């Protein structure tokens, strides 16, 4: 297991450490519910160092990344970030990631921690000769500051003007006295917030600078457990649960990230065919109508006929009810459609609801 540059701090703060994506990371410090509610109401600090960072530099950088992903990097302005799947030729998803556009010849992609090695192999196998592609995942610490008070915390440690940075935009500047850091208004929680990319040698400096204001505002460190419940309330897909190589973006509800009209990209032909055929299943949000929490791989039924499978489920700390995501036959995808979930051998009623489950926080 890799230990992040913040490992000792997590232990100081009482983090319960587990292995995740090859790293030792805190799953929680106090309780998942407490940490979740703190992010919704105040602010929390996350160590997301397990995420991967790939840089593309030189002539052809934009064209190559645009060919790798389904969204349109060419349509981005410098200083913008987009969310996008990256697909196999058959339309299955290699990973979902963020693209940061610094310019036509300098681009960053941020990939899921559990997919770093697989994604790096995929990227390097397709990269054109002469393009500089660098994997800086092991050199980079990623700290997220999330919650309605996140801007106040970050403002206390930087002279970067934060107000002009819109949702899914970024800037480069000095944070906690460390120069040339990348700071973006992005996150995986549904709240306002920032993600800060830091060379490992300066990670402790930045965390310790953020911590006093976080504490003053009633914030706390946040583990992986609350990160999962926060993202699920927003219907943010988790690779390996809700999307993977067996799913395509159209059936996952990510059609808005698939720009079929742009120049050719890997998976385009398959996705055109999938759109024409219309997906036979869709990823839906659901509420449990009866007691029980639906877990990944639980089977779903209608009139005793299997119609799908749960991909994620939890008890929502914000809403006080059991929620989940499932792939259901397209005939059952509409909000209000009722079905049953097999929970430990008993069928429990559920109903499809409109996403997201939680509808407040993110600054638009």
TrEMBL record:
Residues forming the GCVT N-terminal domain are 8-262
Which reaction(s) are listed as its catalytic activity?
Answer: N(6)-[(R)-S(8)-aminomethyldihydrolipoyl]-L-lysyl-[protein] + (6S)-5,6,7,8-tetrahydrofolate = N(6)-[(R)-dihydrolipoyl]-L-lysyl-[protein] + (6R)-5,10-methylene-5,6,7,8-tetrahydrofolate + NH4(+)
Choose one Gene Ontology CC annotation of this protein and give it: glycine cleavage complex
Give the top-level enzyme category. Answer: transferase
Q: Where are the transmembrane segments?
A: none
Which keywords annotate this record? Aminotransferase, Transferase
The processes (GO biological process) annotated in the record are: glycine decarboxylation via glycine cleavage system
Catalytic activity, EC? 2.1.2.10
Domain Aminomethyltransferase C-terminal, by residue range, is 281-359
* Cross-referenced SUPFAM superfamilies: Aminomethyltransferase beta-barrel domain, Folate-binding domain
UniProt-annotated binding residues for substrate: 195
Q: Which domain of life is it from?
A: Bacteria
NCBIfam families, per database record: gcvT, PRK00389.1
To which protein family does this belong? Belongs to the GcvT family.
**UniProt function note:** The glycine cleavage system catalyzes the degradation of glycine.
Q: Which protein are we looking at?
A: Aminomethyltransferase
């Amino acid at each position: 297991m890799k230990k992040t540059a913040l490992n000792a701090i997590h232990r100081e703060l009482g983090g319960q450490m587990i292995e995740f994506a090859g790293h030792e990371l805190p799953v929680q410090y106090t309780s998942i519910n407490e940490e979740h509610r703190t992010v919704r109401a105040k602010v929390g600090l996350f160590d997301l160092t397990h995420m991967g960072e790939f840089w593309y530099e030189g002539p052809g950088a934009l064209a190559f990344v645009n060919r790798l992903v389904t969204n349109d990097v060419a349509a981005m302005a410098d200083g913008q970030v987009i969310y996008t799947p990256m697909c196999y030729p058959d339309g299955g998803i290699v990973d979902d990631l963020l693209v940061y556009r610094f310019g036509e010849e300098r681009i960053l992609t941020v990939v899921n921690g559990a997919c770093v090695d697989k994604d790096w192999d995929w990227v390097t196998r397709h990269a054109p000769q002469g393009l500089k592609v660098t994997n800086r995942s092991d050199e980079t610490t990623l700290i997220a500051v999330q919650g309605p008070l996140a801007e106040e915390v970050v403002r206390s440690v930087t002279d970067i003007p934060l107000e002009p940075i819109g949702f899914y935009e970024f800037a480069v500047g000095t944070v906690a006295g460390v120069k040339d850091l990348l700071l973006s208004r992005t996150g995986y929680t549904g709240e306002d917030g920032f993600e800060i990319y830091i060379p490992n040698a300066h990670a402790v400096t930045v965390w310790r600078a953020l911590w006093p204001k976080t504490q003053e505002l009633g914030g706390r460190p946040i583990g992986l457990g609350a990160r999962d419940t926060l993202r699920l309330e927003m219907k943010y897909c988790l690779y390996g649960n809700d999307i993977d190589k067996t799913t395509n973006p159209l059936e996952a509800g990510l059609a808005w990230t698939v720009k079929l009209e742009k120049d050719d990209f890997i998976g385009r032909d398959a996705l055109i065919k999938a759109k024409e055929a219309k997906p036979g299943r869709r990823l839906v949000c659901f509420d449990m109508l009866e007691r029980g929490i639906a877990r990944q791989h639980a089977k779903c039924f209608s009139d005793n006929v299997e119609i799908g499978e749960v991909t994620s489920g939890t008890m929502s700390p914000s809403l006080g009810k059991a929620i989940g995501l499932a792939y259901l036959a397209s005939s059952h995808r509409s909000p209000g459609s009722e079905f049953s979930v097999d929970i430990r051998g008993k069928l429990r009623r559920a109903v499809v609801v409109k996403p997201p489950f939680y509808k407040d926080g993110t600054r638009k």
